[in-house]
Amino acid sequence: MEAKLDRRDFLKGAAVGAAGIGVASMLGACTPQQNGGDEPEATAPATSTTDGDLILNAELADSKWSFEIPPDPIPDSDIKEIVEAEIVVVGAGTSGLCTAVSAAEQGADVLLISASKAPVSRGGSNHAINSKVMEREGVEPYDLEKFMMRERILAANSVDQKKWSKLFNNNEEAMNWLIDLMEERGIPMTLETCAPEVVFGPDDPQFIPLAAHGAYSEDYDPGSGQPLIVNALAEILQEKGGRILFETKGVQLIRDDDNTGRVSAIIAQDLNTEEYTKYAASKAVVLATGDFSADKEMMKKYCPSMLPLIADDAGEDYDVGPATTGLYKGDGHKMGLWIGAGWQRNVPNCPMVNVQQGTAAQPYCGHCGLTLNINGERYSNEHATHSYTGRALMLQPGQVSFPIWATNYASEYGPWYARGAFDLPEMTTEEVIADWEDKVESGRFVKADTLEELVELLELPKETALASIARYNELCEKGHDDDFFKRADQMVPVRDAPFYGARVGGRFLTVMGGLRTNVDLQVCQDDDTPIEGLYVVGTMVGDFFNNTYTFLMEGLNYGGCCVTFGYVLGRELAAK
């Protein structure tokens, strides 16, 4: 008897045969569709080259990808038990925990499940236009209208401005709430340093206002203290009567009335016993499961430019901390798509990317001195934040760059600042050079007494690279960058030995957005109809960002999409 493959098995096999990327979408349109008889209904014909390669056309491009095909429903007989709550939050990062704590404070019965073994976080910058910390430190709020206009322009005005309004109308209240929660537990918060005004002044389009809040301790500086926040939030949630179940992975949403009604539950699997439990939510299921960057098919469809930075083994660890090669596999996004959720309108999705850190750069800046590509050629105006430096690098051959500088850079490009609290003192020239020497010792930088030797150590084409350095020094002496129009005060020559260099690549952090989301943070269908009972917070919120995460409103994802939206949504759901 001949074995038969169903549509799902066929797609899975096709995806494997094509390394899991791209081809599954084309084959989806070629699979049989039954029309009541034994003959398959014809769809768009697949054409191919003489070598047998499929040729994509418009109809095939709209076909389903394998990640969009729902798995078979988990039968009731496989479900060990049903657990009830008013609100079920899926994910133990900043956004999920803020939502859960905010709702529990208002008396809601909250259950949080997470595939991780503990609360998860990375970094530590939480944006607020104003707060009691800013008032305490005498820091004035920035001009919101001016900066909102800039962000809209940078996003081609293609962001959901209703969500932005909701965020900033609640941002100060939400940040003060978080500050109170932390400081009541002995966790201080302060402001994080940003790019110094000597690099990007108030009239510069890349100016970064002082607005990022961070928790800190002896072990964490304010830019990396998010673990302090999420661990405290998890403790607070349980003190407020909320329940947390770690190592419990959400696998399928239950949408009533044959996927046309409200979402009433989520089925999750215990990662230790592999048993299934249905978690019924009388008010809402809130998805806070992070990004989809570790699923290469999803990245191919929704953020293809970042694929070269994603590792093959990304997404295997739900407790992943700081990582630059992919985080999660889009579990929440897929569950939403399987029950009829639409995707956000902006595609490609907005990546959070910058350049590998540790070069001779100020906080939140790329290397603003001379940078060459792998061919030994200068390729851009280097006066840029690390986000824009990273995007320029991604256009270069091999997607690598080579910052080159000399000892005089330490004194002529100051004052220098370290990452950390905003009130840290300036670094001395000696401290800057000592930091470079430490990185030479660790292998991150190379050092040479001559430019010829430096170029050889960096394995750059010698003649071209030396000519590029000479040309740059000529422009520095002239006081005008004829090639890329960099600001004159940013033109520091590569002059005094010893000389330094590094090889750096793009640094991927996450990809923003996903499921279509309205201003109330409800997940919507393609026709914008809200799916009752289903919400998202955090990185998953659709159409909040576009183009590139700029870092010009430092910590906006944490302070906005995670803290503010989590705080507001928790209260709104508790009041239902």
TrEMBL record:
Domain of life: Bacteria
Cofactor section: FAD
GO MF annotation terms: steroid dehydrogenase activity, acting on the CH-CH group of donors
Keywords for this protein: FAD, Flavoprotein, Oxidoreductase
Domain FAD-dependent oxidoreductase 2 FAD-binding: 87-544
Keyword Cell wall biogenesis/degradation recorded: no
Pfam families attached to this UniProt entry: FAD_binding_2, TAT_signal
Keyword Zinc: no
InterPro entries xrefs: FAD-dep_OxRdtase_2_FAD-bd (IPR003953), FAD-oxidoreductase_2 (IPR050315), FAD/NAD-bd_sf (IPR036188), Succ_DH/fumarate_Rdtase_cat_sf (IPR027477), TAT_signal (IPR006311), TAT_signal_bac_arc (IPR019546)
NCBIfam families noted in UniProt: TAT_signal_seq
Protein name (record): FAD-binding protein
Native source species: Slackia equolifaciens
